[in-house]
Amino acid sequence: MTNVPEHIVCEFVEACRETAHLGLVRCSSGNMSLRLDSNRMLITASRSWMGDISADGVCVCRISDRTPMDEKQPSVEMGFHAGILRSRPDVNVVLHFQTPCGTALASRDAENVNYFVIPEVPFYIGPVARVLYSQPGSDDLADAVTDAMRTHDMVTIVNHGQVTVADSFAHAIQNASFFELACEIILHGGDELTPLSCEEAQYLLDLRSRKEERNV
Description:
Radius of gyration: 17 Å
Largest sheet: 7 strands, mixed
Helix content: 40-55%
Shape: globular
Mean pLDDT: 94
């Protein structure tokens, strides 16, 4: 892969496999991208299986115009990966995953699901946005997800899955794992579940904001 250090590609492949190992994607569902520099990104290739991906399933593309820089075809969701990386200079990794509990809640006829049932969600993820369904790979979906991600680190897409962003592979995978845990708790808890109080959630959100300010 031209001008991409081998160890970076290996780290990318390992992160993809870990994502699948944790059950965050299945078969060819999901995709991941990594910012290489100001105008280049790695992204999983179209129809690649993250669970057994190799360097052959990784593409290099330009962030500015989504143009492939090798002969491989990037993920159909290249639109929102590039859009997020353009609009969020603080983000290095974009992960689109599809988990059963998270997608079940996203697909219910309810826009105001309270995901703050464990402290990890307000502290590591923050408020969760919701995007209506559009065809995979469409400009409408890319624009909607990119716009939501300007002010959120987690977006759920109706009937489609979730997208999270972070500064590292570990943080992105952690976001996805904690989010699915919260969704599983919500589904299992039913109407008797009590989320964090507004005061408790706000305390954790404030801690998160102060942590981000220190990292600027």
